[in-house]
Amino acid sequence: MQEITTLLRQEPLTENALLRLLEIRDEKDLELLFDTADRLTRRIFGRGVYLRGIIEISNICRRNCDYCGIRAATSGLIRYRMQPEAILQTVKTIRKAGIRTVVLQSGEDPWYTPELIENLIRAIKTKHRMAITLSLGEYPFAVYRRWREAGADRYLLKFESSDRDLYQKLHPDCDFDERWRCLRDIRRAGYQLGSGFMTGLPGQSTEMLVRDLLALAKLEPDMAGIGPFIPHPDTPLCNAAAGNPLQTLKVLALARLILKNTHLPTTTALETLEHDSRIRGLHAGANVIMPNFTPENFKRLYTIYPHKAGSDSSAESAMKTIKAQIRAAGKYIRKGYGHSLKEPAAKS
Ligand code: SF4
User: Fold this and answer.
1) Which atom of ligand 1 is nearest to the CA of 304?
2) φ and ψ at 160, to 5 degrees?
3) Rounded mean pLDDT of 284-304?
4) Rounded-to-integer distance, Cα 13 and Cα 16, Å
5) Does this model's pTM top 0.85?
6) Enclosing H/E stretch for 145
7) Looking at the DSSP assignment, which residues form a beta bridge with residue 103?
8) Considering 42, 85, 184, 321, which has the largest number of Cβ atoms within 10 A of its Cβ?
9) From CA 259, how far away is CA 226, in angstroms rounded?
10) Total of domains in the chain
11) Alpha-carbon distance 96 to 119, whole Å?
12) What's residue 345's pLDDT?
């Protein structure tokens, strides 16, 4: 316990300290780690939790990431693509639920041209005055800049693993350097940057996880999503073991300690692995939840991993669960856009 207290006081946390903290198993030590992260979260954000409403606009993707259930090679999956009018209608529902950020998430689907997305961004801004997060994948700088100029506020692109070899192995048709080029360009285009990685990936060591945390620290994202790997039966990784919820919570707590005022969601993947993990996430450094507002007939088809929490219930009932979990964690829903707390100058 004494050793853990000393490690937690290190500023900044070194690679060795992170490794040691990731390996703790003792209940009291774990409690101390989560408590330290929660106290820092409350000092920065209070007890308020921001909600960001997600719409999964298309499950069509040209890529073949090894872990993903909507990869191009998945056959037998009914594919869908939401039309702009349907997306706007769903944005209205999110706004009515009192949420001020919409996240447009999709596979890399070229049907959504830069112009179409630009028009959609302008329509959302004009009609609903929402903060907009895009999570649409890899594009050239000119496209990122175009969408930013149209009014998009944030862009979410996870690096998934900072280990070049592991990344390349899991993403056979992506390029490690290209992913990091995108992350730099997203920042250069003036977005609030969201990134993150997965825990428990096949072939991922604890040392790699530590380096993922250090890569995040270097990137200084405005938001970081950290979720466990969950095997999908129709992918090359169907027989791999799922990530570990406790390990994910430890990584989340350490992310809070090193990233300070970065927004950190407690992810749906974590909740999928273990019911009510959202509450544990809110006690381990998270300050954001992203309720899914994808229309029900589409939501069950956005199967990046199986049995996604909330995928078989309506947005209203999922919101009820989330509200109860926030209350159970002793926190409350914070109104407002929930923009980045980081100085724009620090991001250039
Ligand atoms: S992880 Fe994203 S880019 Fe990769 S196959 Fe799935 S939807 Fe496409």
Assistant:
1) 6
2) 65, -50
3) 96
4) 8
5) yes
6) helix 141-150
7) 54, 133
8) 321
9) 13
10) 1
11) 22
12) 43
Across 320-342, average pLDDT: 96
Nearest to 282 by CA among 44, 38, 35, 43: 38
pLDDT, residue 193, reads 98
Residue range 92-125, pLDDT digits in tens: 999 999 999 999 999 999 999 999 999 999 999 9
Q: Which tens digit of pLDDT belongs to each residue from 21-51?
A: 999 999 999 999 999 999 999 999 999 999 9
**What's the chain's average pLDDT?**
96
Answer whether residue 343 is part of any domain: no
State the distance from the centre of ligand 1 to the C-alpha of 35, rounded, in angstroms.
34
DSSP 8-state symbol, 72 = T
Do the domain assignments include residue 57?
Answer: yes
> Which residues constitute the domain of residue 183?
16-336
Ligand 1 centroid, distance to 23 Cα (angstroms): 30
Q: Is 75 helix (H, G, I), strand (E, B) or coil?
A: coil
Q: Which ligand 1 atom is nearest residue 72's CA? A: 5
Ligand 1 atom closest to 64 (CA): 5
Is pLDDT of 136 > 90? yes
- pLDDT exceeds 90 at position 167: yes
What atom in ligand 1 is closest to the CA of residue 69?
Answer: 6
Does the residue 342 lie in any domain? no
CA of 170 to the centre of ligand 1 (A): 11
Residue of 56, 60, 63 to mutate, ligand 1, most atoms within 8 A of C-beta: 63
Q: How many CB atoms lie within 10 A of CB 314?
A: 13
**Which protein residues are within 6 Å of ligand 1, measured from CB?**
61, 63-65, 68, 70-71, 107-108, 137, 304
How many A from CA of 158 to the centre of ligand 1? 11
Task: Assign 150 to helix, strand or coil.
Answer: helix
199 beta partners: 228
| Residue whose C-alpha is closest to residue 67's, from 202, 204, 183, 165 | 202
CATH number, position 135: 3.20.20.70
